[in-house]
Amino acid sequence: MILAVVVHAGSVQDRDGAKRVLRKLMGRFPRLTLLWADGGYAGQLAAWAAWIANWTLEIVKRSDDIKGFKVLPKRWLVERTFGWLGRYRRLSKDYEAQTASSETWIHLAMINLMVHRLKPG
Length: 121
Prior knowledge:
The structure is a single chain. By secondary structure, the protein is mainly alpha-helical. It has one domain. Helices cover 48% and strands 7% of the residues. The protein contains 5 helices and 2 strands; from the N terminus they run αβαβααα. The chain has a two-stranded parallel ribbon. It starts with 13 loop residues before the first helix and ends with a helix. The mean pLDDT is 86.
């Protein structure tokens, strides 16, 4: 499930947005040591994560040899989660005027998912 959420303007680069998410995680999950990211987060973000919180940022890369679609390990987790969130009408479009409202709706959707998975069959 989602550990931290940050909603920001589309003009913010992914790597800069990732720093905001990682800052939210700092000190909350002491056992967290390994993070996975796609190629868009390559570069200095890995060094920053190691310096700021002693985390290892592992980039999940797509092989250049593979033609067509291929499910990448760990990366499908993110896409699956986006699929779950997309089922909620309020999250399917950009309805919110405030980023805090969007973050709250994401948390509510994840709470709803967890509650429904915990209830007895």
